[in-house]
Design goal:
4-stranded parallel β-sheet; Rossmann fold; alpha/beta; globular; 40% helix; 141 residues
Length: 141
């Protein structure tokens, strides 16, 4: 069993989607969790675009990386899914993570425009994350 922690800034969008896809496509061989550098609130556009493809994350809690560190949780992979600068802010996870990976995805919460435009952009990010998770599952299984 492979344990993965996905991290973004507030655990409100990208890391939540990555966690959901990894748990779905990992089919019990991958156990994924997600966290933020800071505690946030689920992005309603992300909840909606995941619901569009029959994945319900509406009841998910947001977590911080510090909560996992203080609990002594161990992971095989820590994957940051934010921009490079914020990925570098992720705390060192000494002895609790075997490998650290960074994937850059745009932040749905930074999108401007109409609700329709925000949903369209969030779907684009969702699809990019889905493809990356599918590749990850193929290479780690």
């Amino acid at each position: 069993m492979i344990k993965v922690l996905f991290v973004c800034i507030h655990n409100s969008a990208r890391s939540q989607m990555a966690e959901a896809f990894a748990n779905l496509y990992g089919k019990g061989e991958i156990i994924a969790k997600s966290a933020g550098l800071e505690k946030g609130k689920l992005n309603p556009f992300v909840v909606e675009v995941m619901h569009d493809i029959n994945i319900d994350i509406s009841k998910n809690d947001t977590n911080t990386v510090e909560e996992f560190i203080s609990d002594g949780k161990k992971f095989d992979y820590l994957i940051t899914v934010c921009d490079e600068t914020n990925g570098e802010r992720c705390p060192i996870y000494p002895g609790l993570v075997k490998d650290r990976i960074h994937w850059t995805f745009e932040d749905p919460s930074s999108f401007e425009g109409t609700d329709k435009e925000k949903l369209q952009f969030t779907r684009k990010v969702r699809n990019q994350i889905k493809v990356k998770i599918e590749e990850f599952v193929l290479t780690t299984s």
